[in-house]
Amino acid sequence: MAVVKVIEVMSSSKVSWEDATKQAIERASKSLKNIRSAWVQDQSVTIEKGKVKEYRITLKLSFELQ
Questions:
Q1: pLDDT for residue 66
Q2: How many whole angstroms separate alpha carbon 50 and alpha carbon 56?
Q3: Residue 59 burial (10 A CB sphere; 0-12, 13-18, 19+)
Q4: Whether domain 4-64 has CATH 3.30.1660.10
Q5: Are 4 and 36 within 8 A, CB to CB?
Q6: Global confidence as pTM
Q7: Beta 51-64 vs 35-48: how paired, if at all?
Q8: In the chain, what are the domain boundaries?
Q9: 24-32: which pairs have CB atoms within 8 A and are 24 or more residues apart?
Q10: What is the pLDDT of residues 10-64, one digit of tens each?
């Protein structure tokens, strides 16, 4: 039987929400093993002078405990 833990991480990107998601997963995989899935829980942006400055996401990651 597998035991899976879920954690919440936040990430940002100046490019897109997709890039913020990719960066979060790549960074988390440096210290977490057996990442099984990711769920984007929330998306937001920061605005400066009427333009999008930064894309932000809150991501839930699940990984199998050993």
A1: 86
A2: 17
A3: buried
A4: yes
A5: yes
A6: 0.87
A7: antiparallel
A8: 4-64
A9: 24/57, 24/59, 24/61, 25/59, 25/61, 28/61, 32/7, 32/61, 32/63
A10: 999 999 999 999 999 999 999 999 999 999 999 999 999 999 999 999 999 999 9
